[in-house]
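Go through this chain.

——
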Amino acid sequence: MLGDNPQTRGILFICTGNICRSPYAERRLRQLLPNAGALIQSAGTGAVVGSGIEDATREQLRRLGADVTDFRARQVSPEMVDAAGLVLTMTRAHRGQVARLRPAAMRRIFALGDFADLCAESRTWRSILPTQPWLDQVVTEAAAARGTVVPRDADEIDVVDPFRQSARVHEDALSRIEDQLDVVVTALASVVGSARV
């Protein structure tokens, strides 16, 4: 089972329906960090269970060359949170919802925007040791940095739900995810590389 071996603990993205924001982030991170050595998945706090990726989101992923196959929305469970080394939510409210499922995992749960801000400060983190699972070390460093980085207002961090909204809202939401993932990938790419040396 994922989570029994810390080397295989994964990254779990969370939104509400698990058909727009979190699958977009999941499939983009898989594309942008293909050698992560960690399972990258997503789920929803109020998932449209069994549904595929929403049409406009799927088309944007296709345009970017990301894999959109074999996706079905899932409801987040305590077991999924246990199995994840890192949980990244689309809003701070989602973070609270997930933490209530598994309070002991709070240290590993971040809003994506907050985690990106912490990753931007990653040059101050301790060195990642290649002999230990990289994801656990990154989470430890990010959690320790929480008290040193001033959090931005929620409207700068949260990714608004674009479901059934205008094309502009949809574009803005995915653009914010792209901006946040760009910071995360920049910080993690070197970590993943050094951990695999």
Notes: Residues 167-195 form the longest helix (29 residues). The first strand starts at residue 10 and ends at 15.
